[in-house]
Amino acid sequence: MSRLSDCNEARGMCAPTGIPTRGSPQRRAVLLWPLTSVFDRGVPEMDDQVMTSDLDKTSRSEGDRARARAYYWDFWPSMVAYGLTLTAVLIWGHLDGQSPSRYLWALVPVLPMLWTVRAVMRHVTRIDDYQRLLLLKGLAVGFAVAMIASITMGFLGIAGLRTPAAGWIIFGTGMLGWLIAGNRARTI
Q1: Which of 169, 144, 145 is nearest to 156 (CA)?
Q2: Using CA atoms, how far apart are residues 65 and 59, in angstroms rounded to an integer?
């Protein structure tokens, strides 16, 4: 039994559902119902009412995966280069020696980190607005945590506490703040 045979065109109603048919006076009356809010809508056509669960999926879209792959292709080579240069500096740099060249050796691992900054900036320009908001919230929290850590280490230094790894403590707390804030923003 087809849907058309269930509808009574004379009455303007479909028998099993009680939904006004297209062009019927009842349908026109429903569509002309006064709207009282910006969010109110008239009754849409029946063929427009397709339910989808795409918005409820937690899996990433193909575009999200493509942007992530592009970021990985920018980011991971810089991390590999950083690891290699850091290993080379620790083996051949003689950072604990007396040579003035040790300062140049100490700065060599900074070059791949500049490549990492480039990768993150390119990623920020590629991602959509919501992902950018989450990323920048995480970066802002990480920056604030690093600033608090640097102030804390500075005041402890003034008080006489000498910590040779103060820079690494500040860096680590900032990165940890970014990681926690970024993961927390994604789960809320």
Answers
A1: 169
A2: 10
